[in-house]
Amino acid sequence: MDHFEDHFNRFPSQKKVARLLLGHGLRVDNGSAWCGNIELSDTALSRAAEVDRRVVKATLQTIESVPPLHELFFGLRSTPLFSEVASTLGGSSIEIIPDDPGTPGILADVAGVMADAGISIRQALVDDPEMSESPRLYVITESQVPMELIPQIKDCRGVKSIIIH
């Protein structure tokens, strides 16, 4: 991430585009941005980043011309987050707000509570503290989480509060 910050701090508009790409796991290859095998238009990206289309093109060129940036962005893959549809899938979604996102073991402790209760975790995703102002841990379960587990989850190491979706 040092290459990212070091390079894009000099180009604030390009930094907006690069953060958008990184935040959505969009891969950069052959002068284009990709979500899986879907090529995204410069115009669509410029609207999302609220910059001119030429800034998007310049950002993609910059990424491809700087080897550490190219390595980072070429390796990205987007991942669906099931937190908003967990109940539709028959499960629960728990959003964990940490005291300090750098605290080791938050995910391990929450997963332990789930395992002890016999609840299978379908997905767990943690926001990158360097990319998010308010990083969260999202735990999506295969089945509904009983309300009596909420205090145990809240008592896990590093958990400030929780939101059940």
Structural features, described:
This protein has helices at 2-8, 12-23, 42-49, 53-65, 67-74, 106-116, 150-154, and strands at residues 27-29, 32-35, 38-40, 93-98, 121-126, 137-141, 159-164. The strands form two sheets. A four-stranded antiparallel β-sheet has the order 5-6-4-7. A three-stranded antiparallel β-sheet has the order 1-2-3. It has two domains: 2-74, no CATH class; 93-164, Alpha-Beta Plaits, CATH 3.30.70. It has 165 residues and is of the alpha+beta class. A hairpin with a 2-residue loop joins strand 1 (27-29) and strand 2 (32-35).
- Fraction of residues in helices? 25-40%
SSE order: HHEEEHHHEHEEHE
> Mind describing the biggest β-sheet?
4 strands, antiparallel
Number of domains: 2
How are strands sequenced across the largest beta sheet? Answer: 5-6-4-7
Mean pLDDT comes to 93
N-end to C-end Cα span: 32 Å
- Portion of residues in beta strands equals 15-25%
What's the total count of β strands? 7
Structural class based on helices, strands and sheet pairing: alpha+beta
Number of helices: 7
Q: What gyration radius follows from the Cα positions, in whole Å?
A: 19 Å
Segments where pLDDT lies below 50 for 5+ residues?
A: none
Principal-axes geometry comes out as: elongated
